[in-house]
Amino acid sequence: MPVTIKKENGIITVAISGDIDHHVAKEIRTQIDLEIDKSPLQCLEMDMSKCDFMDSSGLGLIMGRLRKCSQYKSDFKLINPAPKTMHILRMAGVDKLIKIENTDVTSGKE
Amino acid sequence: MKLLNEFNIKFLSKSENESFSRIVITAFVSQFSPTVEDIADIKTAVSEAVTNCVVHAYKNSTGYIQLSAKYYDNGKLRIIVKDKGCGIPDIEKARKPLYTTDAENERSGMGFPIMESFTDKLRIISQLNKGTTVVMEKNIGCKPSI
């Protein structure tokens, strides 16, 4: 599974690599929710730096996790979404509901 | 307008074939020197159409999805995604942003709106219990390389 989950001081960081489509979204959702439900959560961060492709199934995954975070009254943050991902988020109006952070992904790479 | 190239394939409505369909359409379109933006749009639109077949058309069954594309000398690409599944009862409703019949599985209801936004033209033909045909057209900016 192209997902790595890190947990530190109530912050869960999920790094997704490759494509998010309907086929993989369910498994990613199960893995994230398993971690969220385990212990108190302050913030869920989805790191999209290495996500090459996302369609409406990925949007469903993001909206679903946002809903889950608001149930736990925790923050949700999306890191480095691709321009196409932003386009899809804007179409659904989700870009206004979540925190989006763009770090300089080119630095630190060789 | 003259037809320059065409493909037509049939595959089972397994979710594994969503990525397969993206690879196929990307490989086909790559011959015509598309922009990176064009490829991303087309890949996303095809992924949405094929996912609809897997999730909705053949909800409780497995059937064949037919994916075909034609490319013309005026730069027009026409993609057809066809299934013989359950059909869409209300196409107008289905086209509305955020409308979904499957919210419990976290479907976002953005499939058709994305197809519409990422291509130049979208046509949906559907008959209950007979199937659905989605026709998408997109002009690819660059001149054909063949």
Structure commentary:
The complex is a heterodimer of chains A (110) and B (146). In chain A, 39% of the residues lie in helices and 29% in strands. Chain A has one domain: STAS domain (Transcription Regulator spoIIAA), CATH 3.30.750.24. The model of chain A has no long low-confidence stretch (mean pLDDT 92). In chain A, helix 1 packs parallel to helix 2 (56-71). Chain A has 110 residues and is an alpha/beta fold. In chain A, a hairpin with a 2-residue loop joins strand 1 and strand 2 (11-16). The longest helix of chain A is centred in the N-terminal third of the chain and has 17 residues, at 22-38. Chain B is an alpha+beta fold. Chain B has a single domain, classed as 2-Layer Sandwich (Heat Shock Protein 90). Chain B is built from four helices and five strands, in the order E-H-H-E-E-H-H-E-E. Chain B has helices at residues 16-29, 36-57, 91-95, 111-118; strands at residues 3-12, 64-72, 76-83, 121-127, 131-139. A five-stranded antiparallel sheet of chain B has the order 1-2-3-5-4, with helices on one face. In chain B, strand 4 (121-127) and strand 5 (131-139) form a beta hairpin. Chain B is globular and about 40 Å long. Classes of the chains: A alpha/beta (110), B alpha+beta (146). The interface between A and B is medium-sized, with 21 and 26 residues.
